[in-house]
């Protein structure tokens, strides 16, 4: 809950504090690089704590980080003038959106454990549709909506939210499978597995601070995002070739580098475009939708791809276990089934990234930002309350 408060606040502050095109590109590039660097620390530190102390320390360790971050926010960050929305809080919108998203995410989680035909699973999806439709109708009528519909119906913002959410579906599920693959199939320790993700993080940082930052003021956003998703898709295509005996250096390493470069390149326009040309008081809403698309996409991706992997593994084992006469052969079939399930889910993730690239190329029509901070082709309508 508190993480959901933090992310849009950070993005909206960047949006209203950095208005010059080049400075804006640099600021969002650094934001993406720090996010990537943080994930690297998380992978490695999580592995160290799990291996040498106890897995519970992965939760305790957030406390000192939170204290440092809170102190920095209190003493350093200053709110820009006119950045606060003083409209009354839309309570019905809060309740309907929260319940709708909870039902949607929990529905995918139940589908993973109980199946798509389970009564509870179906009921949750139906409830999610009803609640989210009611949320849309409410936002269209209230005077001070939680989410002004013009924020998401603008094709540029809508294209970013949709393509980013779909891309995150692919990424989060892949992280889960790759972690399982490295530790269960290859026998890597938690610490070694954490270090194995460093090339991806390096790719994210290079893609965000170098490629994305340099090209954001020169290349139309749709091409930058579309090409980034395609490069990430090539990385997942390599991961879809995984076998029990696959080498980290020849298969996993180049895949992670491409995945990091591709997603890092998309971060700048994906974070910057939704708040471009919007009123400062609505920057928080636009930023919150970026965070929402990521979080919902991550939750759906983990549950959905896990379901696909589990189903593929079960079918593979059922088809091949009869040919395994000895216990070692049966264990080998089980392991082959696990990898088969992973690769099936990763193929689905490849399709998700291709779809994200197509949506970005078709829906987003904003041009690049001019060198003097004036957007050449951007047509983002700003409508006052």
UniProtKB/TrEMBL annotation:
<feature type="transmembrane region" description="Helical">
    <location>
        <begin position="89"/>
        <end position="109"/>
    </location>
</feature>
<dbReference type="InterPro" id="IPR036259">
    <property type="entry name" value="MFS_trans_sf"/>
</dbReference>
<keyword id="KW-1003">Cell membrane</keyword>
<feature type="transmembrane region" description="Helical">
    <location>
        <begin position="121"/>
        <end position="140"/>
    </location>
</feature>
<dbReference type="InterPro" id="IPR020846">
    <property type="entry name" value="MFS_dom"/>
</dbReference>
<feature type="transmembrane region" description="Helical">
    <location>
        <begin position="252"/>
        <end position="271"/>
    </location>
</feature>
<feature type="domain" description="Major facilitator superfamily (MFS) profile">
    <location>
        <begin position="1"/>
        <end position="368"/>
    </location>
</feature>
<keyword id="KW-0812">Transmembrane</keyword>
<feature type="transmembrane region" description="Helical">
    <location>
        <begin position="345"/>
        <end position="364"/>
    </location>
</feature>
<feature type="transmembrane region" description="Helical">
    <location>
        <begin position="219"/>
        <end position="240"/>
    </location>
</feature>
<feature type="transmembrane region" description="Helical">
    <location>
        <begin position="57"/>
        <end position="77"/>
    </location>
</feature>
<feature type="transmembrane region" description="Helical">
    <location>
        <begin position="194"/>
        <end position="213"/>
    </location>
</feature>
<keyword id="KW-0472">Membrane</keyword>
<keyword id="KW-0813">Transport</keyword>
<feature type="transmembrane region" description="Helical">
    <location>
        <begin position="28"/>
        <end position="50"/>
    </location>
</feature>
<protein>
    <submittedName>
        <fullName>MFS transporter</fullName>
    </submittedName>
</protein>
<dbReference type="InterPro" id="IPR011701">
    <property type="entry name" value="MFS"/>
</dbReference>
<dbReference type="Pfam" id="PF07690">
    <property type="entry name" value="MFS_1"/>
</dbReference>
<feature type="transmembrane region" description="Helical">
    <location>
        <begin position="160"/>
        <end position="182"/>
    </location>
</feature>
<keyword id="KW-1133">Transmembrane helix</keyword>
């Amino acid at each position: 809950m508190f993480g959901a408060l933090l992310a849009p606040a950070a993005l909206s502050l960047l949006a209203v504090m950095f208005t010059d095109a080049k400075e804006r590109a640099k600021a969002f590039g650094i934001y993406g690089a720090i996010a990537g660097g943080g994930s690297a620390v998380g992978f490695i530190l999580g592995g160290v704590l799990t291996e040498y102390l106890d897995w519970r320390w992965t939760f305790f360790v957030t406390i000192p980080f939170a204290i440092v971050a809170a102190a920095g926010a209190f003493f350093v960050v200053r709110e820009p003038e006119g950045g606060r929305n003083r409209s009354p809080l839309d309570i019905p919108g809060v309740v309907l959106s929260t319940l709708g998203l909870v039902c949607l995410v929990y529905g995918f989680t139940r589908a993973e454990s109980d199946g798509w035909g389970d009564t509870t699973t179906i009921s949750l999806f139906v409830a999610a549709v009803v609640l989210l439709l009611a949320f849309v109708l409410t936002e269209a009528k209230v005077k001070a909506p939680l989410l002004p519909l013009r924020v998401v119906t603008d094709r540029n913002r809508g294209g970013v939210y949709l393509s980013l959410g779909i891309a995150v579906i692919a990424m989060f599920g892949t992280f889960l499978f790759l972690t399982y693959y490295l530790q269960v199939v290859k026998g890597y320790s938690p610490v070694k597995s954490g270090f194995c993700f460093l090339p991806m993080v390096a790719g994210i940082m290079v893609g965000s601070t170098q490629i994305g930052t340099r090209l954001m003021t020169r290349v139309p956003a749709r091409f930058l995002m579309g090409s980034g998703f395609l490069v990430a898709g090539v990385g997942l295509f390599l991961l879809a070739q995984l076998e029990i005996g696959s080498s980290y250096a020849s298969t996993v390493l180049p895949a992670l580098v491409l995945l990091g470069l591709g997603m890092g390149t998309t971060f700048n326009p994906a974070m910057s475009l939704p708040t471009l040309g919007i009123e400062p008081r609505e920057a928080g809403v636009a930023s919150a939708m970026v965070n929402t698309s990521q979080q919902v996409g991550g939750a759906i991706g983990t549950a959905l791809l896990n379901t696909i992997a589990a189903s593929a593994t079960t079918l593979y084992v059922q088809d091949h276990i009869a040919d395994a006469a000895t216990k070692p052969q049966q264990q080998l079939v089980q392991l082959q089934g696990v990898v088969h399930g992973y690769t099936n889910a990763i193929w689905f993730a490849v399709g998700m990234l291709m779809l994200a690239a197509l949506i970005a190329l078709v829906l987003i029509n904003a041009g690049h930002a001019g060198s003097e901070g004036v957007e050449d082709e951007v047509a983002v309508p700003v409508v006052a309350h």
